[in-house]
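Protocol step 6 of 9: fold each sequence in the batch and record its structure tokens directly after the sequence line. For illustration, a two-sequence batch is reproduced in full.

Sequence one:
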Amino acid sequence: MKAAVVGAGLMGTEIALVFALAGHDVLLTDLSEEALDRAMARLGSLIEKGISRQAYAANTAREALTLIRPTTKIVELADRDLVTEAVFESLDAKAGVLKALDDLCAPHCILASNTSTLPISTLAASLRPGRRPLFLGTHYFSPVSRMQLVEIIPGFATDRATVEQVAAWLEGVGKQPVEIKDVAGFAVNRMLHALLIEAVRLVEEGVATPADLDTACRLGLGHPIGPFAMMDVVTSDLCLQVQDILHDAYGERFRPPALLKQRVAAGLGGGKGRPGWTRNG
């Protein structure tokens, strides 16, 4: 199977890696050579650290890296069987990429979006009617090289055969797909952000500190990481963006807390090199 990923950020880069680890030919594309150079360097570092060692039959991690070919030329994706869009969480950005892929890719090519919140049928509106049966959502979880779950989200027009084919490919690369109805935020993010919102409210109310709530979730609920440590990894900026989308879709229960908005505006969103809830940078 010939795969491709559009977007060489943290998610897109590791999506490319898991397909290469299973022995597939993979193209990784982005707008700039610099972004692609960073992506390939990061994959090399992941492999050196052993983070991506998994029980794939086809290739060792080092051999897998040779199966990923970076390119800035989107026209090279014309022969792919599966193309995953993994650009940033913006309806306009994703729709623009999908429209370009629709015009370029072979008629049999399946297009997938790694959106975490945007309804798939809304994104499908950017495609021609003939392509929509071959389009669906595949929501991976970070870090993709370690997290097994992928939410598969069919749109209104997605063919059953498309869902079954993508599920088979995902199982073949070591993932566990679960099929989710096409609603804003899908399933996991709705559960997760209900927790994150309540955690921030507990801090706003002075009930407990971020550090103590992280400890409570790890030791009391068995979570591998607490909510505030998680927000520092994925960034509070992204959490706020997702909660705004959920608030628009579902109303008051997903209203972002004022404290989260204040911290993002103050540059305390976490992420690489920035202060967050649990660290100073």
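Sequence two, same batch, same settings:
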Amino acid sequence: MADSNGTAKTAESRARGIRATGRRRKGPTRRRRVLTITLCALVSVVLLGGAGLGYVYFKLNGNLKGVDINAALGQDRPKNVDNGSMDILVMGSDSRAGKNSEYGTDEGAARSDTAMVVHVYKGHKKASVVSIPRDTMIKRPSCTKDGKDVPGQQRAMFNTAFEVGGPACAVKTVESISGIRMDHFVEVDFTGFKKLIDALGGVEITTKKAINDNSSHLHLQAGKHTLNGEDSLGLVRTRHGVPGGDGSDLGRIQLQQTFIKALMNQVKNVGVLTNPTKLYDVADTATKAITTDTDLNSVSELSGLAKSLGSIGSDKIDMVTLPVAYDKVDPDRVEPLTKQSKQVWDALHQDRDIPKSAIKDSAGDKGGTDSYVR
């Protein structure tokens, strides 16, 4: 480590968790983790049953917002490999504007909190999800926002790509580090996630031990729980109160991945397909919560995606974190493990399963939180 204070400061930094920005925190904040927010919306739209959305086509179609990623990026992208697989960048912003102001001060620009690359394999029977920690130090490419050029940066946090260049820059950054062209983009905000969980009637989870985190205002005894939207937000952002956790954002990502699978199972068992009123409420909430690329921002396109991917269950999804190590310059950041990260991206590019050897030495999948919540 480059830190002159040695291992003591490094351990302290890791215990605090990786910082979201370059500034020191003044105290605990009510940050809602958009990693879960984004995939939740994707899962809800994709798995609830595309055919049922059609009966309220025009109403739901008016809810959707789209960003023309293809026009923004032009030809400066990886080759589109037409092998039957699909890659979707799922992410969210940490904007504090509007109703999101209760989660912190609006500083005028949004960042991506955490992003996931969802790779759907040929045949659309299984998928792999790669979480990219928000504070991963990467080479950010040059981008354009509102007609203005944004210079690239040799060493930048991953989450700044969304901040300086919006969704198109986030997509371009992911494509530059992975070498994989993203077929689609989905984004959701804090308030949308909470409303979506409430519309679903909550999510059932089981904790093996009590969770007590004053920072996230979450207090759960060991046992079964049905979490509403607010408690779900507390769960997916907690990092101090989970037994076995390492107190970092890396451990929190692992917890979020466990929650996502619980949510997927819940979506298939809440009766929305046999209850038109509930189906409408969930579909209305989900379509209001998300922003997609323009190839997806219609009910007909989402319905097609739903029919294509609806058979993928949580047991057919492999979730990993991009192989990383704590940054040598700043222990509050992480950096990709070059060899292992290449293994991950090469596997997805070739439509193969991610090898276990790729994450063996990574700090990203050692949080220990997944064994306490299911």
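Proceed to step 7 once all outputs are recorded. Observation for sequence two: Residues 233 and 259 are 11 Å apart (CA to CA).
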